[in-house]
Structure formats: structure tokens, C-alpha cells
Amino acid sequence: MKRPSAIYSLIWVCIVAFASMHTAYAHPFHLCVGQMQWNGASKVWEVSLRLHPQDLENAMSATNDATPSSKRVSIDDSDFAELAMGYINKEFFLRKTPKAMDSKELEAILRSESKPVEDSADVSVQKLDKQNEVRSTARWVGMEQERGWLWLHFEMPEPSHDERVEKLWLVHRVLLEHVEKQENTIAVLPVGSPKFSLQFQAGNNFREFRRVEK
User: Fold this and answer.
1) 153, 143 in Cβ contact below 8 A?
2) For the whole model, what pTM was predicted?
3) Residue 30 near residue 55 (C-beta atoms within 8 A)
4) 157 and 44 in contact (C-beta within 8 Å)?
5) Residue 167 CB neighbours (<10 A)
């Protein structure tokens, strides 16, 4: 077989380089896929989310407190784990509500909770404590990079709730407010129940969460 000419070799190299650059800097797919698996021994959901690191850095930088000394968030920062959990706990959590509350009422509450709290530290602490009674708080486990993607791993306990009078919702707003046409999907693997998946988009960023999806 004849070896390709130098010009064809050069064209091929350029195509590969362009494709790699396009994937790294202007990727056409804005997806966050993930998995939640229930650990019956530790009573937590083990969560893994796969997303583009640049999208996450952009979203975290945009939501980071704006101060003159603020710098762009990077996955290479020494405090990235802390910053990432701060972001995740605002955008990904389980929340319980009274069973009579409908989705429109919950949406109004979530918007209210997303607003900046008052300057008073005491008020902020009281508000956080109240939220923690009804919503989960994630704990960092680790991260890993794979072929241009970033995996975030964390644990999330399920808020104590009475299914007779309360509902549980999964809120998944990760990147939805900062990336155009972002779509999120997560597979849920309960113990003793069939696995199912949930999808989230802008304007549809929370879903009722049941161990057995009907």
C-alpha cells in the first residue's frame, strides 16, 4: 500500500487538531449525566455527575461572590472541592414538602431560597438551619477526569420524611442557568426497586422523587 502524500498527511493532522480543539473549547453537546445509588449501610445516596469542566468553571465563577479580589474558579484550585460543594448544594439536592404542595408552589419557594440572604450573620445561620431541616446537604467524595469530561463524586443523605403526608423532590439545576440548551439526566438505582432515570432542562429543573417511579 502506498504511503499517503505529505499534503494528505498535513490535511489529516489539521482535521484531527480542529476536531480536538472543537471538542475542548466549543463542544456541541451540553449534557450532564449522572447516577444516584442508594447505600443502605451508610444511609446515603452516592452520586456521580459527569460534565464539561469548562462549563462547571464558568458556572461556578458566575455564581461566586463578586469581590474585587475574586478570581476565576478552576478545577486546579486548591480549594476547588470546597467551592464545588458550595455550588452543588445550591443546585442539586433533595427537598421535602407537604404532600398538598404542588409544583408551582415549590417553584416559588425555590426561587425565594435562591435569593441572597440578608447581611446579618444571625439571620443567615437561621435561614440555613431551617433549609437543612427540609433539604439534603452533599458531602464531597472526590473527582476524576476522563477524556475531557469531569466526574464529581459526592454523598447525599435523604431528608427524613413521612411519605403519608410529605413528598420528596430532586432539584437538579446544575449548569441550567449558565449554559444554553443544557440538559441533565440522572439514573437512580434504589435498593430493592427498579432503576429509573429523570431528565431536567431549563424551566423543568425539579422532579418528584420516588423510590419506585410510576
Assistant:
1) yes
2) 0.77
3) yes
4) yes
5) 19
